[in-house]
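Reviewer 2 asked us to include a model.

Predict the structure of this chain.
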Amino acid sequence: MLRGKHFRLVQETIAIETIGEKRVALHVPAKSIVTVESGPRPDDSRMIDVSWKGRLIVMFADDVQKRGEQVSSSRNLLN
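Predicted model (structure tokens):
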């Protein structure tokens, strides 16, 4: 279960953001902190909802786990 965990990306990673009714691909830079809000979903173990800079985006769970390092919620997450 990834929900509630924080990851610092060590490599730029692609994500999807919904703006209005459009889905837009974006790049989340290396060193960014993302927080898993939900997922993976039972019907799709690949996608998770994450928050990043106050935005709710969707990323591949595998990308977050392979291109990120889990950080403790008690650490200063802004570094």
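The mean pLDDT is 89. The CA atoms of residues 13 and 28 lie 5 Å apart. We have added this to the supplementary material.
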